[in-house]
Design a protein that fits this description.
This protein is mainly alpha-helical and 141 residues long. The chain has two domains: 96 residues, no CATH class; 41 residues, no CATH class. It is built from seven helices and no strands.
Length: 141
């Protein structure tokens, strides 16, 4: 539930392909800048032209980076390819290190721990916990 709240509070940042990872953001924009240097005639205006937004570093937000990323992905097939490749590699890594059934087991345990924490540290029987809607997650994958 906290992740859902984060996503709402942060205007969708945690629902982007970056997730909450600064590393993922860095990987993507490194590819963007390389593409810009390789093809300035195609990307220069979008990356450093008059219409490129300029925001002081102290005023920058995740949703601004995400908006620019989505615009670049829509405008340029090579950049879209970098994004697809990045997501696919992360998916492979995730499934290798935490397959859906393992994720479910960990998530279920955290669900129970959350109820215990909210109950003053005392365990809450499963039948008294809020419904857990994710049992079918491994079947979705």
């Amino acid at each position: 539930m906290m992740y859902l709240a984060d996503a709402e509070i942060d205007e969708g940042a945690f629902n982007s392909f970056f997730g909450s990872s600064v590393l993922e953001y860095g990987k993507f924009f490194s590819n963007v800048f390389v593409e810009g240097l390789r093809r300035p005639e195609d990307l220069g205006e979008s990356l450093w032209g008059r219409d490129a937004p300029s925001v002081r570093i102290t005023q920058r937000k995740w949703n601004q980076y995400i908006a620019v990323a989505m615009k670049l992905i829509e405008e340029d097939e090579a950049i879209a390819g970098h994004a697809r490749h990045q997501v696919e590699e992360r998916r492979k890594h995730f499934w290798r290190t935490l397959p859906p059934s393992s994720f479910l087991a960990v998530n279920r345990r955290e669900w129970e721990e959350l109820h215990q924490q909210l109950n003053g540290g005392r365990p809450v029987p499963k039948e008294q916990q809020l419904p857990y809607f994710f049992e079918e997650i491994p079947d979705w994958c």
